[in-house]
Amino acid sequence: MTGTGGEVLVSAEGVFKHFPIRQGIVFKKEIARVHAVDGVDLTVRRGETLGVVGESGCGKSTLARCLAALHPVTGGRIVFEGTDITRLSRAGLKAFRRDVQMIFQDPYGSLNPRRRVGSIIGDPFAIHGLADGAERKSRVQELMELVGLNPEHYNRFPAEFSGGQRQRIGIARALALKPKLVICDEPVSALDVSIQAQVINLLKDLQEELGLTYVFIAHDLSVVRYVSDRVAVMYLGRVVEDAAGAELYGGPRHPYAAALLSAASIADPDEAERAERIVLTGDVPSPIDPPSGCRFHPRCPKAQDRCVTDDPALTVRGGDPADHLTACHFPVEPGEHLAGRAAGISQVSTEPELPEATP
């Protein structure tokens, strides 16, 4: 959407988010942990759109909620405009939420069906004490008009709107306080294709008009390519590649990123016929007990013995631009074909046995 290279708005520095698994009835004991986000380093610059992609369960949504301070982090820190938000007081968090808002995936579940739309969109003004009475109603109706809704529908309930209109309501609510960062957690995945295009174009127009910064999470790789300046690829709780959108889609360097992008749909039938699909073997390892070394090595067609023991750093690899980071010991070379190649390192089991709780 916009150019990169500006001031850093928010950064994640070695962020961990683990969810404990407990067993027992009266005295619950922690027996394991789900490593949802496991050491993520990420930066988002002012005015850009950062796309985040990866398989289901890779930690995208958990990372988004950590960036929005909806989940407390287990380790590391998140810095927003120079302030570590992981250490903010309750009052500090309330002020922070004026600058960071989320658009949720489900346009049905994210709106209270018993409340009128005007009340839902007006909540941010009420919570932060910014407008009341006629002024609040006027500002809510301005927001409704901004996102393409009829201001006269102020008193309707969510059930009286379509899915696309409900998502516009969610967008209006997110924009009420004029935030600096908007985190879009799969905002179009629950919508029809024709409605998806409308919402995506709306988000682009609003970014240009209001100078917004987006973190855009999606499964649809073509959507991410269309909206993003930069793209971060996640696998099993970690970022494995981070690059400008054109750079990543033109030549992914991490074998997982290459396999993921090979699955993207191609509109041109001739080009689609020539494209090679990289089919990964094995299952995604459990985040309860992730593999040692590089987490992708049990499924990687380029894996070698070093990948089992050494965890690769997310850094610039030979010949890549300074903003193209890859966490791989043996990155994909230009013109290299991975289709049909089997994984080099096998894995005995991807489902760990949980230890029994002792009384």
UniProtKB/TrEMBL annotation:
Q: Which residues form the ABC transporter domain?
A: 21-261
Q: Name one GO molecular function term.
A: ATP hydrolysis activity
- Keyword line: ATP-binding, Nucleotide-binding, Transport
GO biological process: what's one of them? transmembrane transport
Region ranges (Disordered)? 339-359
Instruction: Name the family the entry cites.
Output: Belongs to the ABC transporter superfamily.
Protein name, per record: Dipeptide ABC transporter ATP-binding protein
